[in-house]
Specification:
231 residues, three-stranded antiparallel β-sheet, 16 strands, globular
């Protein structure tokens, strides 16, 4: 603390630290409805989403959104973040799904569904995370990129799954305060954002079979995630 006071007395100014976010965990190269391949900025906020999780934090993206199709994030329930009832997001409480989806497997929480592990994992520059390659001469698309096999490069193949997917029983995460379940891979990605608080908002009308998980953390991080389909 004394060092901070000394620096202030010398006229040193401190910059707000930016959150360390792996944006590739929260963006989507597959979607066609929106351009979600990278984060986008609106006003003084940065957003990233894969249509299942949306995260935001203060900041500016000078690239703009004029030429991009991005969601209308202003329509989301941001007012709910001012409500009470927040709880710390602790360790996962995993359950096996017992309905007809029980043998469909689940997204790997070790590699976040990327198929590779390590701090240097990035989308493959050849297939851009799609895990496919194009034979331009034959005008055909083939599953399984020749360079990466899984859509990502920069780390060893994950030994806990098959291309990001764990075969066997469908395992989901139970969240206190919600009758719904949340995907294991999705929750593992959310936990990379650090210590978080959460609260649950139940869907209404056409969305009454889903729950929204609101979460917030340091550096002004806020996010919204959707539950799995009702059992």
């Amino acid at each position: 603390m004394s060092a901070a006071f000394a620096a202030t007395s010398l006229g040193v100014t401190f910059k707000t630290l930016k959150p360390l976010i792996r944006y590739d965990l929260f963006t989507d190269p597959w979607t066609t409805r929106f351009d979600l391949n990278a984060p986008f900025g609106i006003d003084d906020m940065i957003y990233a989403t894969d249509c299942k999780i949306l995260i935001s934090h203060p900041g500016r993206d000078d690239r703009g959104t004029e030429d991009r199709r991005v969601p209308k994030v202003g329509n989301l329930p941001w007012n709910e973040f001012d409500s009470s009832g927040w709880k710390p997001l602790g360790s996962p409480d995993l359950v096996v799904r017992t309905d007809h989806y029980r043998d469909n497997g689940h997204c790997c929480s070790v590699c976040f569904g990327l198929g590779r592990v390590g701090s240097n994992v990035v989308r493959c520059p050849d297939c851009h995370g799609r895990s496919e390659w194009v034979d331009e001469d034959a005008n055909e698309v083939f599953d399984g990129c020749e360079k990466c096999r899984v859509g990502y490069v920069g780390g060893p193949i994950c030994t806990h799954c098959e291309r990001g997917w764990v075969n066997g029983p469908t395992i989901e995460e139970r969240i206190i305060g919600s009758p719904r379940r949340f995907g294991t891979g999705m929750m593992a990605r959310i936990r990379t954002l650090g210590d978080l608080e959460y609260r649950v908002v139940e869907g209404e009308g056409a969305n009454d079979e889903t729950s929204l998980l609101l979460f917030r953390g340091d550096h002004g991080i806020r996010g919204i995630a959707c539950s799995m389909a009702a059992q």
